[in-house]
Write a structure and sequence with these properties.
heterodimer; A: mainly alpha; ABC transporter involved in vitamin B12 uptake, BtuC; two-stranded antiparallel ribbon; 4 strands; globular; B: alpha/beta; Rossmann fold; 2 domains; five-stranded parallel beta sheet; 10 helices; 37% helix; 17% strand; transmembrane (chain A); transport (chain A); cell membrane (chain A)
């Protein structure tokens, strides 16, 4: 394939990856921003979302669209509730102490992964997409007859992949509205700024924390439900999203909404493009190098606020 | 406080238990002495129960247990029952080596057997040699026959990749096309395909126009496909692991209506149902199969017997669950390897671990393996010098969502000059 169409395809694929990564990283960033908890189990909440989506669609059977829509609601809700319960039962008991929450979430990671292995099993299972039409894409060239549009071989995307990109944009906008324009958002931001003062003003900080931990996990689960018709649900699928989410939130700035979105698109796209034209190893090396540079020269991240 | 002079209830109970155990002890030792000739032969089975090889592991275990039952029902090996000691290797090389140590030191196994993924075999084989434990692998890689491993490692149940691709290259070149793009996993097993098929297709006057190595942990593939040159006549694909279905589906989405000829190694679709949405484009494409997944019109009685014992229906699915598709193209090797172990132990008069080297020499002396209930995949030839067996290969076409065999290769098609002589190595 020629360079132009090839780059276009790599970017489209990178954009799909970036969309899912944005949702997952936003969940991690939200939890850190408000609660100052580094959630190592975040990737497992992602995996749970995918596994529950398979479970829901298999249980319902029938038209794949119905199963998918139900999964889109049920899986994030269940994962969110599970995470809120984990917050209530575990994180609250260790008083959100930074070191102890890391150990506690590592424990959660193994419990979730092994329970999934024991119940769901070690195999990967596919989820049928609700719709999946192949869309051939046009490209252009300048010939003797001037500007011409043509249809390069292989340059295409599917309607479902476009839907994933659109769904991620809508979710981001919704989350931004929630954070910036709603009362819940105000409470969350107040808790993020100074949880002790917020508590003094009557904000039930513990309940807010459970809500935030649940929301963070639900966002990861939502990303997984969106991606599972493209990939498959597998009990080991949580590792990559966790690593990439950490890279994203460090580069973007822990707790920064704008930074997380920008960094997720940057990392998702660069991973897509560099791994195609060079090697996937180089893409990971550059991302890690970027993390190192950010930590050295701008520890608060590209968009993070400087500590007072 | 006054000291207690009477023993407590707990002490009395503990004492009674100790007396009971001591009185039972002579029975235990007597059984061990008297039973040394009827004690089971313990075969340590490295199985991919978890990790990326789990689909294979599930079926390797079913096949192994089925073969063991048939062997035991027929009187075992040298009059002794066979006991399978299965341990999960997690499809992980480090864990694989640890499992071998457990077999030797904890379970007291006679030999080690099992496992498919080449990195686990390569990671475990040196430990087998250190433990001086015969290690019968059910892999496909060329690492055994290349001389990379050691005299304790044997592959008597399945043909290696070098032989497979060499046997099939003539069919590809003369029926599908001569300009081939290869898509393979970027590790040992994939590199075997890359190197040996490239050489084999060139020998047929063909050419590999592009080689796409994909990291084994990759979960999305469309971005790699534009590297396929437009002049490609045949796509040769082989992928392994949990993402195989995604790989094949995305390949169909990429090509749309204008796909070249497609020749796949069934590894890309082992344990996957052809009826899965998105795989319709595979109709009319070709696959390599070690053993045909679908019962063919000329099905042998041996295949019927083997299928029934393992619990697989005529479509290659579990008799209990038609959606549970077997790894039919590979798992026969477990069945056949256990029979080679049986044959070797009987020829060596194997009585215990002191006879391990005799067992290896006896297996090295095996040559012909006629098609039979013991070797349902087909007649084979074992090369004692390279520790590698050679068998027939099948090329099938997808017709009506089923694989129909078009061509079966001869043993000679897969022969190549020896690269090692393990029999000259000391134990």
């Amino acid at each position: 394939m020629e360079f132009g169409p090839h780059l276009m395809l790599a970017m489209l694929e990178g954009l799909v990856q970036a969309s899912v990564l944005t949702l997952t990283a936003l969940g991690l960033s939200l939890v850190f921003g408000v609660m100052r908890v580094v959630n190592v189990a975040h990737g497992e909440f992602f995996m749970l979302g995918a596994v529950l989506a398979w479970w829901v669609t298999t249980m319902l059977g029938g038209n794949p669209a119905i199963g998918f829509v139900v999964a889109l609601v049920v899986a994030p809700l269940l994962v969110g509730l599970m995470a809120a319960a984990a917050d209530w039962l575990v994180l609250r008991r260790v008083e959100y102490d930074p070191e102890r929450t890391i150990v506690a979430t590592i424990g959660l990671l193994y419990i979730i992964q092994q329970v999934t292995l024991m119940t769901y099993g070690p195999d990967a299972h596919p989820v049928t997409p609700p719709f999946n039409t192949r869309l051939a894409l046009p490209w252009y060239e300048f010939t003797d007859q001037g500007f011409q549009v043509y249809w390069p071989w292989g340059l295409s995307i599917t309607s479902y992949k476009l839907f994933v990109i659109a769904a991620a944009i809508v979710t981001c906008l919704g989350l931004w509205l929630l954070m910036a324009r709603s009362k819940i958002g105000l409470i969350l931001r107040a808790t993020q700024l100074d949880s002790e003062t917020a508590q003094a003003f009557g904000i039930p900080v513990e309940r807010v924390f459970a809500l935030v931990f649940g929301m963070g996990a639900a966002l990861a689960a939502l990303g997984a439900v969106l991606v599972v018709p493209i990939q498959q649900a597998h009990y080991l699928m949580g590792g990559d999203p966790l690593l990439l989410s950490f890279i994203v939130v460090i580069i973007g700035g822990l707790g920064s909404f704008r930074g997380t979105v920008v960094a997720a698109v940057l990392i998702g796209m660069s991973d897509g493009v560099i791994s195609v034209f060079f090697t996937p190893t180089l893409a990971k090396m550059l991302a890690t190098l970027l993390v190192a540079m950010v930590l050295v020269y701008r520890p608060q991240g590209l968009f993070g606020a400087k500590p007072a | 406080m006054a000291k207690k002079t009477f023993p407590t209830r707990r002490k009395i109970l503990t004492g009674m238990a100790a007396v009971g155990a001591a009185s039972a002890l002579p029975d235990v030792t007597r059984f061990a002495h008297a039973g040394s000739h009827s004690a089971p032969i313990k075969i340590g089975f490295q199985v991919h129960r978890t990790g990326i090889g789990a689909a294979y592991g599930r079926w390797y275990e079913r096949t192994t247990m089925a073969a063991t039952k048939v062997i035991n029902d027929a009187g075992g090996i040298n009059g002794r029952p066979v006991e399978i000691v299965a341990e999960d290797d997690g499809t992980d090389p480090k864990r694989g080596a640890e499992v071998l140590e457990k077999f030797a030191n904890q379970h007291g196994c006679d030999i080690a057997y099992g496992t498919l993924f080449s990195h686990v075999v390569i990671g475990s084989a040196p430990r087998a040699a250190e433990l001086k434990m015969p290690y019968f692998v059910v892999s496909e890689g060329h690492h055994v026959a290349s001389g990379m491993l050691n005299r304790y490692t044997l592959q008597p149940g399945i043909t290696d990749v070098k032989s497979q691709v060499q046997a099939m290259a003539p069919f590809v070149a003369s029926n599908l096309g001569k300009k081939v793009t290869m898509i393979f996993p970027d590790f040992a097993f994939g590199h075997n395909h890359r190197d040996f098929f490239s050489a084999a297709i060139e020998a047929q006057g063909g050419e590999v126009v592009a080689k796409l190595a994909i990291p084994p942990t990759e979960t999305s593939f469309t971005k790699y496909f534009p590297q396929i040159p437009r002049e490609t006549e045949v796509i040769y694909h082989v992928m392994v692991g949990p993402s195989v279905l995604t790989f094949v589906k995305e390949m169909g989405e990429f090509f749309g209506p204008s796909a070249p000829q497609i020749f796949g190694f069934i590894d890309s679709l082992e344990a996957v149902d052809f009826a899965t949405p998105g795989l319709e484009f595979l109709e009319g494409t070709h696959f390599w199969e070690g053993m045909p997944r679908y019962a063919q019109a000329d099905q042998t009685d041996y295949d019927k017997f083997y299928r029934a014992q393992v619990g697989v229906d005529n479509n290659g699915a579990s008799l209990d669950d038609p959606k549970d598709i077997s790894t039919y193209s590979h798992m026969f090797a477990c069945w056949e390897t256990l029979y080679v172990i049986k044959q070797g132990m009987e020829a060596a008069g194997y009585t215990g671990p002191q006879d391990r080297t005799k067992l290896i020499e006896a297996v090295e002396a095996i040559t012909d393996m006629p098609e039979s209930n013991e070797h349902p995949q087909g007649a084979k030839l074992f090369n004692g010098k390279t520790h590698q067996v050679f068998g027939p290969q099948h090329i099938s076409k997808v017709e009506g969502g089923k694989l129909v065999v078009q061509h079966t290769t001869s043993l000679e098609d897969g022969f190549y000059p020896d690269e090692v002589d393990y029999t000259t190595q000391s134990f």
